[in-house]
Design a protein that fits this description.
The chain has eleven helices and eight strands. By secondary structure, it is an alpha/beta fold. Helix 1 (29-36) crosses helix 2 and helix 2 (44-56) runs antiparallel to helix 9 (212-228). It is globular, with a radius of gyration of 18 Å. The N and C termini lie far apart (54 Å). The structure holds S-adenosylmethionine.
Length: 285
Amino acid sequence: MSERGEEREWAAPNGGPLPPEIDTTKPSIARVYDWFLGGKDNFAVDRHVGEATVKLAPDAPLVPRQNRLFLQRAVRYMAAEAGIRQFLDIGSGLPTQGNVHQVAQEVDPAARVVYVDNDPMVLAHGRALLATNSSTTVIQADIREPRSILENEQVQQFVDFSEPVGLLMLAILHHLADEEDPGGLATALRAPLVSGSFVAISHFCNPGEAYPESAKVAEEAEAVFNENLGTGRWRTPEEITAYFGDFELVEPGLAPLAGWRAEPDPDVSRSPLYRTCVAGVGRKP
Ligand SMILES: C[S@@+](CC[C@H](N)C(=O)[O-])C[C@H]1O[C@@H](n2cnc3c(N)ncnc32)[C@H](O)[C@@H]1O
């Protein structure tokens, strides 16, 4: 193993050595999430976080899986039913199956997508995947600096802010601490969007005393994430709803991931994890 960890595990998208900015000695949420989804772009430190979570809650992988399915339903809804043709996906994650551009461009091949993530691994793999797609791009930027996203040259080039936009913040706001002001950041990112735009959000949730078993898992998972990864907030449904601001939640409102415009699946809804991640789509009136 090299000083920076497991260079030999690196499967470069375009060949070549592990880029110096990728630190394999510390877990990254993009790579932990990739592990949960059965991907190969992760290292031992990342797998350790995933395995600790699975030890606590054996059906934990259903949350990322359901999150991806929510993403696909939400993007399809925005593209096919609401006519959205440009998407800004913040905290996009490593490329996997059913990515935003694939879903949106199935509806309209000219739909434009900008992926934004602060993890260098996402940029390395994203660029390789998207190299041939002129309607899709990926930039490295931090949600904690919304102006660096909104004023980014490529964002300006790909997104016409005089037309409705689909803004995605899926499974990212719960990686921001309260002191980082996720509400203020969500407000700043929604601000330039015109009427008819949408925001989709998914977020770890602690449903409180109405669902004591789920609340207990949420508290325990929060402890495991913070101990191993240093982030993870399971917020209340009220806190999460506030991130939509004046955008009006479309039916069915804020719901468990698998309960948002999906066929009921008893295997999923009977899990205590069902209510520990929720999602919604809001429309700017
Ligand atoms: C759990 S993954 C979710 C990926 C994708 N949005 C999805 O829902 O399938 C969270 C992503 O947010 C990114 N992320 C975390 N903090 C971020 C920040 N401050 N700025 C930009 N991206 C961030 C991570 O690198 C990771 O790729």
